[in-house]
Specification:
Helix content is 72%, strand content 0%. The protein has one domain. It has 17 helices and no strands. The protein has 420 residues and is mainly alpha-helical. Helix 5 runs parallel beside helix 9. It is globular.
Length: 420
């Protein structure tokens, strides 16, 4: 049974001009060869993926520049020379993290519930696979941050240099529980990795719970309603209280918008369904912004709407130049997660070098900031090539070879068996 209302309603009334044009378009599409149809679908999907990667790489640049401005000390020397620019990076550039939250929700919905229907039988196995994918490169980046702090500490004294971590602190990072347990993050982006994992686990549990509630009959709107409820709870209450910022529910208002955007993006979706999903994206968020305006939520709404609009445009609206741009975004966007993970140790080392060996002149220190920015991009590309890809292959191979029960740790197997 379809997750949403049928794509075409039945009626004996004469077709309107708009309906005639739509049916004519469908007829022309039917005359295409399978190869042409597959090519069009592939190009459209490629552009969508490229657009997402382009958003992510732009957001990654903003995050790198924000940390350069926020932590210093090079930015402390540049600030009198360009106070408005450094101040903007310090205060507002961090909002770009909303791009990662929304696009992560968008892609999670594509993976977990592409039609908005429950279909997860073993939630712990799904969550374990996500953990295996996230943690190995994260711990490599954490080790780099520890080494960078030790090296930078030999050249400068600054609050951005972390103390040597304890074994419990490292264990908390490895379990992605450092924010919940109150441990100081070893690297600037460590909190996001933990939150991303929490959000993915929360969405997985919502979809699994919907399947349990609707075990005897199909309830097409149950999963979307649960997500909408989570978005409203987050935007209207939890996201307004910073005491919740170590938990997924604080960020689910943005993540859930990405989930809803995936379900609304299908050009073949029935128009009534799209209108309802668009209303679910717009109305609660606009209401929450009227009660308590938060620029981070406004940015998340804009990103979600952009994903829907871009994805719903038919392929013939995109010329070769647009498709090439999507391909470029895809090539560059692949390194965005690597940049996010390794930019902090790179920036820390460059800051230490310019503090110890370079005069404290604004232009020279500004050059140091540019050097740190460019070095972060190169380090992210190298990290993707020589760390992320090999670890991804190893984790995929290990999970693929594992049996149903061995796909999760032994201590979780009894719990998993009770959920089947």
């Amino acid at each position: 049974m379809s997750a949403f209302p049928p794509l075409h309603g039945s009626s004996q009334r004469p077709l309107s001009k708009q309906a005639v044009r739509r049916e004519s378009s469908i007829a022309r599409s039917a005359l295409r060869s399978p190869k042409q149809v597959n090519t069009c679908q592939s190009s459209s999907a490629s552009f969508q993926s490229g657009f997402i990667d382009l958003l992510k790489i732009i957001a990654a640049q903003c995050i790198v520049l924000h940390h350069l401005a926020f932590y210093g000390p090079m930015s402390d020397h540049v600030r009198p020379f360009a106070p408005m620019f450094i101040g903007w990076l310090d205060t507002y550039a961090r909002i770009a993290v909303q791009v990662f939250l929304v696009t992560s929700g968008f892609l999670a919905a594509k993976s977990l519930a592409p039609a908005g229907m429950p279909g997860i039988a073993d939630p712990l196995r799904v969550v374990w696979r996500r953990y295996v994918r996230l943690v190995p490169p994260f711990m490599v980046a954490t080790a780099l941050a520890v080494g960078a702090s030790a090296l930078a500490g030999a050249w400068m004294t600054h609050y951005s240099i972390s103390a040597m971590p304890t074994l419990l602190q490292l264990a908390a990072h490895a379990l992605l529980l450092h924010t919940v347990l109150g441990y100081e993050s070893i690297s600037a982006g460590a909190w996001y990795v933990a939150i991303d994992f929490q959000l993915y686990a929360l969405l997985t549990c919502l979809i699994w719970m919907a399947g349990k509630l609707a075990v005897r009959r199909s309830v097409p709107w149950l999963v979307p309603c649960l997500v909408i409820g989570g978005v409203c709870a987050s935007q209207w209450y939890f996201n307004r209280d910073a005491r919740w910022d170590a938990w997924a529910i604080y960020f689910f208002g943005s993540y859930g918008l990405g989930v809803l955007a995936w379900w609304a993006r299908d050009p073949a979706r029935h128009r009534a369904t799209v209108v309802l999903l668009a209303a679910a994206i717009l109305l609660p968020t606009l209401g929450a912004l009227m009660v308590d305006f938060r620029s981070r939520i406004a940015v998340a709404l804009v990103v979600a709407c952009a994903l829907v609009c871009i994805s719903r445009r038919q392929n013939h609206h995109f010329g070769p130049s647009w498709l090439r741009m999507g391909g470029m975004g895809s090539n560059v966007g692949k390194i965005s997660y690597g940049v996010f993970l390794v930019h902090f140790p790179v920036c820390l080392i460059v800051n230490a070098i310019f503090t110890r060996f370079v005069p404290a002149q604004p232009l020279l220190q500004a050059f140091g900031m540019l050097l740190a920015w460019g070095s972060s991009m190169l380090a992210g590309a190298a990290f993707y090539r020589w760390v992320q890809l090999p670890l991804s292959r190893l984790s995929s191979r290990g999970v693929g070879r594992a049996s149903a029960d061995s796909a999760v740790p032994p201590f979780l197997q009894p719990t998993l068996s009770t959920l089947k």
